[in-house]
Amino acid sequence: MAAKWIEQKKRYRKYKARIKELPENYRSSIEALERYLLIFGPGQGDSVVVMLEDLAGLFEESAADQLPLREIVGDDPVEFTETFLQNYPEGQWIKRERDRLITTIDRAAGDRS
Amino acid sequence: MGRQMTAMLKGTLEGIVLATLAGGSAYGYEITARLRDQGFTDTAEGTVYALLVRIEKKDLVDVEKVPSEKGPPRKVYSLNEQGQQYLDEFWTNWNFLAERIERLCDERN
Asked: pTM for the whole thing?
């Protein structure tokens, strides 16, 4: 358990180092996205790290293509972020609640014993 | 692009990305550029990237990492057998939907 936690911390630090290399306006955007993702996203350490690594990947590729920030996040950054979040359902409280709702209604409807 | 258009595209963009890949392998930004050429002008690179992460997880594409001169290696996506099946299903559903909606539109006139 501790080893896993140390590994996650290491990966998180690496992610932080990666985003430090990016242009300033990318970095401030990533920090804003990270805040949103950590509030609404997965609660499990592994998924969190994978999610942030994917986020860094997006901005690194975009930096290589010299994309303006607007082209990356679009007109509605929430729209993009929600699409992105759907990829990391593991450990999301909303996912647990959705599953629970589905199971309860299935049972109530007699679809599941 | 208005809010209504964004909402309509939401459910179809995954299929649209796969359809784009049916025209040949590509990396993230190439796919976005192709979509823009097709008239999906307001598509955010981030949204396409998120969908690529998703279709990769669903194993609908094969991914190859190709080194690039600047920046990180590029992930090049190509449609695989399973992705092709998924795309066929997408077109079936799309045609069904389009036909029904078309009919509603005709009835109005």
From this structure: 0.89
